[in-house]
Structure formats: structure tokens, C-alpha cells
């Protein structure tokens, strides 16, 4: 829309304005997002190329001079002989008669366009303030402490891992949780939380025993060996079929990332936890992509429309860039008569596409935004030692 109209988050005239951090996170290929960057660079990504051209020192992170970064991309787009840039607000999705289109919008989608997307897709959950709980690597959980059990033996009886706390551990945890540092909402955000999905710190501040009678209630959970019931319990739920990643159930949070690592590692069994995703609460706009999109990222009920980037349920600058490039490549191959197949799930781009399409999602679990992490990849071969898992994937 710029410069005709801006969202409340935008101030610059140029494209690719970074309104939050100027970091695109790690460039180390031993991290999933670092591997994704390498794949994007090999595919000729404009965004990653511009990031390297405007890079500023930031350790192993790929951070950029945000003004130079935005200006360079703006110049590349404006000078490209095959691109016509049209400035103005889009309030409705293109019709089939208007031709093919890729819809690449995000958290600050205008109300009219969002309403039209909801009308066409029936995706009533598309917009809300997202409350995301942390996810930890399954092999970083201390299984000598955490035990498998479901409340009242429901399901298979061992669907969850449980981290038990005694009273002293619980009181210390709640004390640190209430005194932690939190990320403030941006000036353009207004908190609209679901009552059933409140930030864990909001619940903790309402009373010292609130969590023990809610998110951390031990009722119906007994240790399978000792039969004892803990004072409080944190339940961990599988994020994928192979148990490579576990979600801290009910622990959506607005704590800063360093504080999340510090406070959540106080929990028994999570002292050495490797965090694949950290908690967050922010405005989000995304589709139930596994139910709505096909493997070319086309809307099933309106195949002339493709959706790309953050609206599909990917999280982060790099992931949105990657998915946008993938959708463009798939459409280009289709238009030129080449075979149209997704990248293999063993590469970062394929793993990200698999997340959007729900390939590794457990039945009954809702589609949620995700950053790229190793838990989205197929598990390494049986018998692979933990220290070698990333080498095997590379």
C-alpha cells in the first residue's frame, strides 16, 4: 500500500521495512534457520542476498542495516524490467476472471481484506492475539525425572510427559515467573487474549496457587513407579508423531527469550532443555493451511489463488521469505510446463512446506505458526547419537 497508505507499524516509504528486529537470526548451518538461509542463498533469494549486502556485525547472526536493506530491495524491485509495481490498498481477493494471484499478507492485514479471506475460506480463527507456548527438543528432557502418564489414564495412558514439582520447587518457580522481565506489546498492538489461553504469568500474578489449581494441577496424575502425586505438575505434549519436540502445555508467555530459558529451566526434568521454539504473544493472522491449501499452496476452493508467507502459518522473516520464494517457484514451474513437486522433507525448505501442509502434525492438533526448527524435519536414522543428529541432517 505504501506510500498511499500505511499500517500503524510502518513509517518508511521503501519496501521490506523491518518494523521489529534487524536480525534474521543465526547464519550457522548447524541451526535449522541457518540451513534455511543457505538453501535460500543457493536459490538466489533477493531478500537473503540483500541481507548479506547490508550486513552489520552480530556474531553468527545475520543482522542488517535496516534502512540500507529496505532501500536495496526497493531499488531491485523498482528497476526490474518484468515487474510492475502498483501502489494502493487491496480490499478484496482477485476473482478467477482477474487471473492468477499470490496472496502474501501478514499480521497487519487490513480489516476489509481479512474479512474477504475469512468469507472465502470460512477460516474463522484467522485473526487473534496469538499465545504460543515454548517447545523443547524431546531428547533434551531428563527422562529420569519426567514420567509418561495421562491424567486419569485417558487416551493411551502415557500420552504426556510430566515434570513433577514439590511445594518448594513450585513456590520458587512461581516467584521467578512473577518477577521475570516481559516483552511489552508494540504501540500498534492491543491485547485481546482468549480467556482459555491467558499468558502463564498473567495467571500466576492472580494468586500464588492459581497455577497449581489450573495449568499445573496434579489431579489424576500419579507416578507410575512410586504412585505418588506431586504438589504440582508441568505436562509436556508431543508436537510431532515421532516425539522430537514437546510443547509445554499452557505455558504461553510474554517473557523475554533469555528469561524464558532461565525460568523454564528451573522446572524438574528441563534443566538442560533445548528450546526449539520460545513462547510469544502477539497479533497474528494466518490460515488453517493444512485444511485449505493443496501441495502447490493453492486455495482448494479457489485454485487461482495461492497463499504465501506468514499468512500460511510460518513465523519469522526468514521463514516468510522462504515460503514466498517456494510458492513463486512452484507457480513458475507450473506456468512453464515443468513438473511441480515440493522439495524433500529432509531439507529446510521442504520441512517448512511440510509444516504448512500439516505433514507431521498429530491428529486433532490445531495448525499453529512455527519458526523452522529441527523438530519439523524427519527423525534421524535409528541409533544416531544425539551429538551427531545435526551432522546427519546436513
Please explain how this structure is put together:
By secondary structure, the protein is of the alpha+beta class. 27% of the residues lie in helices and 15% in strands. The protein has helices at 32-42, 46-53, 66-79, 111-121, 167-179, 200-205, 257-264, 289-292, 317-335, 348-356, 389-393, and strands at residues 23-26, 55-56, 61-64, 101-103, 127-132, 135-137, 147-148, 160-165, 232-238, 245-248, 275-277, 280-285, 298-299, 302-307. α1 (32-42) packs parallel to α9 and α2 (46-53) crosses α3. The chain is globular and about 70 Å long.
Short account of what is shown:
With 394 residues, this protein is α+β, with helices and mostly antiparallel strands. The protein is 27% helix and 15% strand.
Largest sheet: 6 strands, antiparallel
Low-confidence stretches at least 5 residues in length (pLDDT < 50)? none
**What is the topology, as strand order, of the major beta sheet?**
7-8-9-10-6-11
Task: Find the structural class using helix and strand composition.
Answer: alpha+beta
From the N-terminal CA to the C-terminal CA, the straight-line distance is: 40 Å
Rg over CA atoms: 22 Å
If you average the pLDDT, what whole number results? 88
- Gross morphology is globular
SSE order in H/E notation?
EHHEEHEHEEEEHHEEHEEHEEHHH
- Write down how many β-strands occur, each being a DSSP E stretch of 2 or more residues: 14
In terms of DSSP E residues, the strand content is 5-15%
Number of helices: 11
The percent range for helix content is: 25-40%
